[in-house]
Amino acid sequence: MFDLPLPTHPSNGVRGLPPGCPSGNTDLSHPFALTLSRRAPADLLSGRAVPLVLTHVATLAEAMQGAIDHAERIAPDAAPQLLALLDRDERLVLAGAASDHAVAWCHPVASAAEARGVVTEASQLRAQAGRAAA
Q1: Pairing of strands 32-36, 52-57
Q2: Which residues, other chains included, contact 58 with Cβ-Cβ below 8 Å and sequence gap of 6+?
Q3: HEC states along the chain?
Q4: What are the two backbone dihedrals, phi and then psi, of residue 59, each rounded to the nearest 5 degrees?
Q5: Hey, which residues does 102 pair with through a beta bridge?
Q6: Which residues pair with 95 in a beta bridge?
Q7: What are the pLDDT tens digits along the chain (134 aa)?
């Protein structure tokens, strides 16, 4: 699990492909999708919190390279962005925080118990960050 805080920021209301999108490939026949998490309160309240698909690619290596390319286009002072690689059935393959020319990938899990542990750890970190910000 990475330890970068991912604050929520107001949504600017703009939809579609974000600047620096790797390719915007929408070919659904490709098995992997690179997505960007929508965590802004406006998105959460409006039901648009589903991830924004940046591109569809044929291989996991291409998806990871697309994530790195996306991170290289993020301004150095911008907040980290949560990227996820999903398979054809929209199952999480890999996730990471992209910021300032790099992606900090989460360690994959092999079981539901490990996944619950990651969620618990993330919740604890989020709570600590909330207390520190207050």
Answers
A1: antiparallel
A2: 30, 31, 32
A3: CCCCCCCCCCCCCCCCCCCCCCCCCCCCCCCEEEEECCCCHHHHHHCCCCCEEEEEECCHHHHHHHHHHHHHCCCCCCCCEEEEEECCCCCEEEEEEEECCEEEECCCCCCHHHHHHHHHHHHHHHHHHHHHHC
A4: -130, 160
A5: 99
A6: 84
A7: 444 444 444 434 333 333 334 444 456 688 899 998 876 667 667 766 677 889 999 998 999 999 999 999 998 888 888 898 998 888 888 888 898 889 988 887 888 888 788 778 877 877 887 788 77
**Beta bridge pairs of residue 108:** none
Closest CA to 37 of 86, 77, 76: 86
Six token digits for residue 94: 């890999």
Is the model's pTM score more than 0.70?
no
Pairing of strands 32-36, 92-99: unpaired
Closest CA to 46 of 17, 15, 19, 20: 15
**Residue type at position 24:** G
